[in-house]
Amino acid sequence: MASELPRYTLRIPQIYLDKIRYIAEEEGRSANKEIEMMIKRRIASYEEKNGEIKFDS
Fold first, then answer.
1. Predicted model pTM
2. Residue 6: how many CB atoms within 10 A of its CB?
3. Contact 29, 4 (CB under 8 A)
4. C-alpha to C-alpha distance for 19 and 25, rounded to whole angstroms
5. How far apart are CA 52 and CA 17, in angstroms?
6. Of the candidates 1, 2, 6, which has an alpha carbon nearest to the alpha carbon of residue 36?
7. Residue 36 parent element (H or E)
8. For residue 42, what are the CA distances in angstroms to 2, 4, 10, 46, 47?
9. pLDDT at residue 57 above 90?
């Protein structure tokens, strides 16, 4: 079944991708899930300092 999540092509240096893959494997996750976790943590950190980011529906 195809995912309904939006796709985004990420261009990063190979060394970063290799390190993310290493961390992901150590944590028992895919590289994609590891990147998702990193993004969630960064958003939470930003919102903690600056308030919740809200969008008009």
1. 0.84
2. 5
3. no
4. 10
5. 29
6. 6
7. helix 31-50
8. 27, 23, 16, 6, 9
9. no
- Cα–Cα distance measured from residue 49 to residue 16, given in angstroms and rounded to the nearest whole number: 26
Tokens of 18: 């290799």
User: What is the tens place of the pLDDT at every residue in 7-56?
Assistant: 999 999 999 999 999 999 999 999 999 999 999 999 999 999 999 999 99
Q: Can you say whether the dihedral through the CA atoms of 44, 50, 52, 55 is positive or negative?
A: negative
Q: Which residues contact 36 (CB under 8 A, 6 or more apart)?
A: none
Length of the chain: 57
Structure tokens at 49: 């300092």
Residue 11 tokens, joined: 């261009």
Six token digits for residue 31: 């590289």
The tokens describing 57, both together, are 């529906």
